Design the sequence.
C-alpha cells in the first residue's frame, strides 16, 4: 500500500510529547544556569576556614590597633609616673628651700633679739638694724613666693595622680582584648601562606606552611632611646622627646573603635599634665635659684653691716681708751697741783696754832716794830697774806671742781668703753652665729629665739 501520511499519531498526543521534551530541555537549561550561578555564588568547601580566618583578621586588626593604643597608654603612664617622681623631687626641693627660709627668718629674729641685749647706750637704731629689718622683710617676701610655688606644685602633683589613675584605668580596660594576643598573632601569622595555598586547592600543599612563621606581630620593634645621653640636671626635660612620639596617628576614636573617647581624653589629659608639670618644674627650680641668690646677697649684706658696725665700735673703743688715758693723766696732774696748792696755802696762811709761829713770821716782829715807830710806815703784809690766802682758797676750790669733772669724765669714758666692748662682743657673736648657721644644718628649738648666742 502506497499511501503517504504526514503523521500517524494524533496531533494532541504529538504536541503533549513535544511540550514534555521542551519542558525537559528548559529545565535542563535552567539547571545548568543554576549550577553555573551556584558555582559563582555558593561558598567554597573552605568557607568555614575562610570565615574563621576573616574573623581572626578582624579580631587581630582590632587587637593590633588596641595594642597600639595600649602602648600609647603605657608610654603615657610611664611619662606621667616619671613626671610624678620628678615633680615629687621638685616639691621636696621647694620644701627644703622653704625650710631654709624659715630658718633664715628665725636666725634674723634671733639676731634682732640678741642685739636687744646690748647696753642702753648702744641700743640706738643704726644701719645694722636697718639691714636686719630689710632682711626680715625680704625673707618674708621670699617665703610667700616659695609657698605659692609649692602650692602650685602640690596642685600639679594632684593633677598628675589623677591623670595616672585615668590612664591606668583605661590601660586595664584596653588590655582586656590583648589577653590572647600571642595566640592570635601565631594563628594569623600564617595568613598569607595559607591564602596562597588555598587557591591551589591542593591539600598536600598545606603541609608546606611553616610551623613558626615570622610575622609583624612577632618581629621585634625598633628600639628608640628617648633619653638624652647627656647628663641631665634635676630631670627637667627627660620626658619631652617621649611625649612627642606618643601620638595617635592613624588610630580611630569612637565608642566601638580601638581607641575610645575616654582613652583619647586620658591620653590628652596625661600629656597636657606632663607638659604643664615640666614647665612648672622649670619655673620652680628657677624660683629656687633666684631665692637662694637673693637670700645669699641679703645675708652677706647684713653680715657685712654687722661686721662694719663691730669695726666702727672697736675704732671708737680705741679712741675712748686713748681719751681715757689722757684724762687719767690729766687727773693725776690736777691732783698733784691740788696737793701743791694745799701746801702753798698752808705756807701762806701759816700754822694753825699761834704757839707754832716763829718770830720771823710774826707781823709785830722787832724789825717791823722798829720801822713802824715813825708815822706813815704801815706795811701791807697782813692784807696781802689774807688776800693771797683767799685767792689760794678760790683756786683750790676751782682745782677741786676741775678734778671732780675730770673724774666724772674718766668714769663716763670707762663706762662707754665697757658698753662699746659689750656692744662689739654682741655684734661679733651675732656675726659668728650667722656664719655658723649659714649652712642651715641645725634644728629650730623654740618659736621664740633665745638670747643665748649658741
Sequence:
Amino acid at each position: 500500500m502506497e499511501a503517504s501520511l504526514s503523521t500517524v499519531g494524533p496531533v494532541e498526543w504529538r504536541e503533549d510529547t513535544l511540550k514534555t521534551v521542551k519542558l525537559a530541555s528548559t529545565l535542563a537549561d535552567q539547571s545548568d544556569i543554576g549550577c553555573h550561578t551556584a558555582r559563582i555564588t555558593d561558598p567554597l568547601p573552605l568557607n568555614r576556614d575562610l570565615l574563621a580566618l576573616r574573623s581572626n583578621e578582624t579580631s587581630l586588626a582590632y587587637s593590633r590597633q588596641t595594642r597600639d593604643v595600649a602602648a600609647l597608654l603605657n608610654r603615657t603612664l610611664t611619662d606621667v609616673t616619671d613626671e610624678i617622681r620628678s615633680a615629687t623631687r621638685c616639691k621636696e626641693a621647694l620644701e627644703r628651700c622653704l625650710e631654709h627660709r624659715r630658718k633664715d627668718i628665725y636666725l634674723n629674729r634671733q639676731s634682732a633679739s640678741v642685739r636687744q641685749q646690748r647696753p642702753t647706750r648702744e641700743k640706738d637704731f643704726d644701719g645694722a638694724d636697718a639691714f636686719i629689718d630689710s632682711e626680715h622683710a625680704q625673707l618674708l617676701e621670699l617665703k610667700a613666693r616659695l609657698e605659692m610655688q609649692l602650692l602650685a606644685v602640690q596642685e600639679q602633683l594632684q593633677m598628675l595622680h589623677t591623670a595616672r589613675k585615668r590612664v591606668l584605668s583605661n590601660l586595664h580596660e584596653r588590655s582586656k582584648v590583648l589577653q590572647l594576643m600571642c595566640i592570635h598573632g601565631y594563628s594569623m601569622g600564617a595568613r598569607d601562606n595559607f591564602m596562597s595555598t588555598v587557591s591551589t586547592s591542593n591539600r598536600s600543599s598545606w603541609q608546606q606552611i611553616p610551623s613558626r612563621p615570622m610575622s609583624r606581630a612577632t618581629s621585634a620593634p625598633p628600639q628608640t632611646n628617648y633619653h638624652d645621653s647627656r647628663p641631665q640636671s634635676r630631670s627637667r626635660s627627660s620626658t619631652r622627646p617621649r611625649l612627642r612620639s606618643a601620638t595617635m596617628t592613624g588610630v580611630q576614636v569612637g565608642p566601638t573603635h580601638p581607641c575610645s573617647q575616654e582613652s583619647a581624653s586620658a591620653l590628652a589629659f596625661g600629656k597636657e599634665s606632663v607638659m604643664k608639670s615640666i614647665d612648672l618644674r622649670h619655673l620652680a627650680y628657677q624660683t629656687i635659684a633666684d631665692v637662694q641668690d637673693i637670700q645669699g646677697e641679703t645675708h652677706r649684706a647684713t653680715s657685712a653691716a654687722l661686721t662694719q658696725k663691730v669695726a666702727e665700735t672697736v675704732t671708737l673703743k680705741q679712741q675712748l681708751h686713748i681719751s681715757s688715758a689722757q684724762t687719767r693723766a690729766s687727773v693725776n696732774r690736777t691732783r698733784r697741783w691740788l696737793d701743791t696748792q694745799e701746801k702753798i696755802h698752808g705756807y701762806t696762811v701759816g700754822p694753825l696754832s699761834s704757839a707754832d709761829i716763829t718770830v720771823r713770821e710774826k707781823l709785830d716782829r722787832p724789825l717791823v716794830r722798829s720801822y713802824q715807830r715813825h708815822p706813815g710806815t704801815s706795811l701791807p703784809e697782813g692784807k696781802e697774806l689774807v688776800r693771797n690766802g683767799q685767792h689760794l682758797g678760790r683756786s683750790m676750790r676751782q682745782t677741786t671742781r676741775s678734778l671732780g669733772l675730770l673724774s666724772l669724765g674718766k668714769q663716763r669714758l670707762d663706762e662707754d668703753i665697757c658698753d662699746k666692748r659689750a656692744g662689739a662682743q654682741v655684734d661679733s657673736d651675732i656675726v659668728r652665729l650667722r656664719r655658723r648657721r649659714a649652712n642651715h644644718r641645725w634644728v629650730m628649738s623654740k618659736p621664740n629665739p633665745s638670747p643665748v648666742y649658741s
